[in-house]
């Protein structure tokens, strides 16, 4: 095949989003006789989208240099700005800064205004936004929008609208920011944008919807991203982030094995073409491990997530709380919330309320709950209402207002159930049970505790199951609680020091059956060792 034929076939494959075919045809043509600057740029894009980061950056550098030879400063500057974006995405900030300076110098040499001047504002605006000045970033994104409109550049206009939505959300105007995300997604789903901007915008919009506690929008756009990735199976550059978003939705909806599987795929792809998937892949894995009671593994996963440069909060603070160190958890969540922008702080508030109640610092917990209630009034969306109602109910319980608590918690439970979030719905039922008990309705309290306990067991949430079980014993603290009579008998023998074989012999069971009973006991009571089971048996009158 001649170089000319390879170029023609590469261009056709590129137009049809067949990135591997485009890469192979352009590469063969390049080896035979070289490529024009525009086709080098296309080859670089195909390489980057298929996960060949180093190769793609080298080719993009060649395209930049070829544009310079031709005297095409616009093309050279365009390559420079994409070098900045890809290098920053890969964490190579020094190289990104060098390319930013070069691109700005080239833009300053242009004889006529051009859309590339707007693109050069993008990395500066993002640095300003992530540096904590969303108002200044919003002004930069507005200037970008002016360039996009002036030159009819849809990619630039879409980036400007995306950034404006992010900055608006960070300022605290959630509904306005979310409306901007919906608008920019019109251009993406209509196929008006090129591939790299489309992938960036998909992932950014989903992440920000999750930050704003808009589960329904996040679910809708994640499904759209999933379809987009399936239609382009060799687009590795965004598929890992898609899997990380899927992992979060699986976790929220109680499909924890599926969440772990998606997180594992995200981790694999983070090192194979999609570095931004690193945080989500490990953070979601850590969340499932924490909720399941595997705290050491959870900590290791949070540490891996932190390698991305993003702080693994509120999960890390909640991990300290799960280990019984409420003071440390309080210091972590207060610092994180105190330095966050408005949108991120709101995302941290539910954990902050839980931790402040555990310390306890009731005034701080009440302030957090009030902030969530104000957010719910501003943005009347189901998940915001659920977290606000649940936090308000928790605080009211500690304030001695079981009637008000019950009202808030039942509303929150209905919202969680409607959203299909079983873990939080079960947490609400435990809190509702506490309110019933405080009001003297013991029968209803036990019904709520038992329902929540069964849901936690089904999820595999051992710590939460033990928490629910702690309210299910008799009034004097004795009794088997959530254990069946057979499990209570096995626990008695464990507490006596008997091994599995001896227990099997005494109860006329197989050792396999005894092992299953012990596993169930550990899960129901949130225990991890025979020593802990023995201690529980003595504390609850089951060892004699």
Structural features, described:
By secondary structure, the protein is an all-alpha fold. Among the domains are: 1-112, Serine Threonine Protein Phosphatase 5, Tetratricopeptide repeat; 361-472, Tetratricopeptide repeat domain (Serine Threonine Protein Phosphatase 5, Tetratricopeptide repeat, Alpha Horseshoe); 475-544, Winged helix-like DNA-binding domain superfamily/Winged helix DNA-binding domain (Arc Repressor Mutant, subunit A, Orthogonal Bundle), CATH 1.10.10. The chain has 29 helices and no strands. Helix 10 packs antiparallel against helix 11. It is elongated. The mean pLDDT is 92.
Quick gist of this model?
This protein has 544 residues and is mostly helical. The chain is built from 29 helices and no strands.
What key phrases describe this protein's structure?
544 residues, mainly alpha, Serine Threonine Protein Phosphatase 5, Tetratricopeptide repeat, Arc Repressor Mutant, subunit A, 79% helix, 0% strand, elongated
